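User: Teach me something about this protein's shape.
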Amino acid sequence: MNTTELIYQESKELPEFEAREVLDFVAFLKAKRQRKLAAEQETADMSEFDQFGSVFDGNFDRDACYDRPHLR
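Assistant: First, the predicted structure itself:
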């Protein structure tokens, strides 16, 4: 007997309100997996920008930006 069948057999013996709790827990696990997959996908999408990490260090000096010869 596999795990799914064991869960089914055990849940048949539970009162209705406890069986609903099991169902809620299954929904929670599915949502948790979806959030994890979404977070992994978001991290994977940012990997294309890693090559530019050395170009911009996060510090921006507006005066230095506008103090360039071709802007004078």
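Now, about its shape. The mean pLDDT is 83. DSSP finds three helices and no strands in the chain. If you'd like, I can walk through any region in more detail.
User: That's plenty for now, thanks!
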